[in-house]
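Notes from the 1:1 (GR / supervisor)

We went over the backlog. Supervisor wanted to see one worked example end to end before approving the batch request, so GR pasted a single chain during the call. The sequence is below; no edits were made to it. Supervisor asked that the structure be written out right there so they could see what the output format looks like.
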Amino acid sequence: MSSPLERLADLIVNFGANVQEGQIVDVGSALGKEELTRAITASAYRRGAKFVDVVYWDPHLKKARVQHAPDDVLSFVPSWYGERALQLGRERGATISLTGPIEPHLFDDLDPERLGRDVYPRVKEYTTVINDRTVNWCVAPCPTLPWATLVHPELGPQAALDMLWEQIVHICGLDEDEPEVAWKERSDVLKGAARQLTKQRFDAIHLEGPGTDLTVGLLPSSRWIGGGEETVDGIRHMANLPTEEVFTSPDPERVDGVVRATMPFFTQGRIIEGLTVRFEAGRAVEIDADSGAETLRALVDQDEGGARLGELALVDREGRIGQLETIFYDTLLDENAASHIALGSAYESAAGAEDRPRLNRSSIHIDFMIGSREVEVTGITPADERVPVLRDASWTI
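Structure output shown during the call:
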């Protein structure tokens, strides 16, 4: 039998991104992830890829920029980075991104406000090609030793890495005889939940729990999406591997109340802990946290849409990630363990054409988790009827 690393690479290429013969494949990786990156490259070529273009991210380069670059250039990204993303869409390519922190504490001594203004390696044009559905894409985890010791500090380094790999194997279904079949079945369940939510035509969603009393308005044509996705050319792919969420794009002008994050999260190389956000008329007017608040405030100040919501995602407790009761400090995994919201750009596929001009636009998309078994999720109809949606983190519709 092939190794877990080779099986993960094949699952990402064959099922996650569903790389097609003759495609150009873009791989976003990082130093320390070379082994899985090489396995993905080999798998893509076996699949018939025309060319695999790998970009390795080195966080030390970002640290040098934040430390020494002039204030007025920190938000600058050369235009050819965005053009590369747009060209990939024009070529109908595939893109694979590997997640998981590689040097979790590298930025701890940086000015938090300056760090928040340097959004690279995020390139806003990737949002364009995703919304245009011109690429088949997949975001997947890559275990590394630094990430493992962050998640499992109680273990020795090798034991921590072994444990993280064991968890990733389980989360990604590699312990199943046929992982792709298992994911197709889970995708069908998520699509069914999305259909039920869309059918309700809720006007708003109310979330209530410890520290949270938040009402998120929906657009008249808001639709819920879950499971696998499809490009404009009909290529099916799993954008997140793993995925457990059912999401929509809310009305960016109708969000009111207070929400408290139910777990810490890792963004811009910083761990944000104890986050509380207060919204008025759609805008985040107060952002407080036990740590990392200045970085998050600087991020949302990037543009007008940074302080508004672009996503609301609901997650039940039936998925494999939440059942592990582990904080992974990786948005891909943690956001699929609990319901979450995202500040910044919205997904056009989650609204009808008539409402897409109203969707939130931003250069950022910052997810943070707000769900737990204690947080009740209720749908509010246009007639102001209240319909239970999640209770004890289980579907009630």
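Supervisor's comment: Residues 78 and 123 are 10 Å apart (CA to CA).
Batch request approved.
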